[in-house]
Amino acid sequence: MASRTSGVDVSSAPSSIAALAEQLRDGPLQRLVELQMQTTALANRLADGAPARIEDVEQIVRLSISAMQHFNAFTVEFAAVLRDLTDDRRQPH
User: Fold this and answer.
1) pTM score, two decimals?
2) Do 67 and 35 meet the contact criterion of CB atoms below 8 Å apart?
3) DSSP character at residue 2
4) β-sheet bridge partners, residue 4
5) Between the CA atoms of 58, 71, 45 and 55, what dihedral angle is there, to the nearest 10 degrees?
6) What pLDDT sits at residue 7?
7) Residue 47: C-alpha distances to residues 20, 31, 50, 92 (Å)
8) How far apart are CA 72 and CA 31, in angstroms?
9) Can you give the pLDDT of all 93 residues of the chain as single tens digits?
10) What pLDDT, on a 0 to 100 scale, did the predictor assign at position 13?
């Protein structure tokens, strides 16, 4: 059975859809999970009375920026693939 989203048949989409799903999982989402884990660990240390270290905060800022850059790059690529799919759907074959 073909998957359909907003009238676009994604079962006939190029393998780039599968590649994008892997890219999202292995890139931006992985970085966001790492960001969450490090932020939670820092919050727990601070709650336990450990002193705040600027290095910890700097690492979280770097990781946050990296995660957002990767997610933005993914979003741009995903939008291009979606645009190609919808353009192909609109053009008569």
Assistant:
1) 0.66
2) yes
3) -
4) 9
5) -10
6) 46
7) 39, 24, 7, 62
8) 13
9) 334 444 444 454 556 778 888 888 888 889 999 999 999 999 999 999 998 899 999 999 999 999 999 899 989 988 988 888 887 777 665
10) 52
- Output the CA torsion 59→61→66→72 (10° steps): 160
Task: Report the C-alpha gap between 49 and 77 in whole angstroms.
Answer: 44
C-alpha 16/C-alpha 81 separation (Å) is: 8
Count of residues in the chain: 93
DSSP assignment of 40-93 equals: HHHHHHHHTTPPP-HHHHHHHHHHHHHHHHHHHHHHHHHHHHHHHHHHHHHS--
Quick one: which of 40, 31, 34 has its CA closest to 67?
A: 31
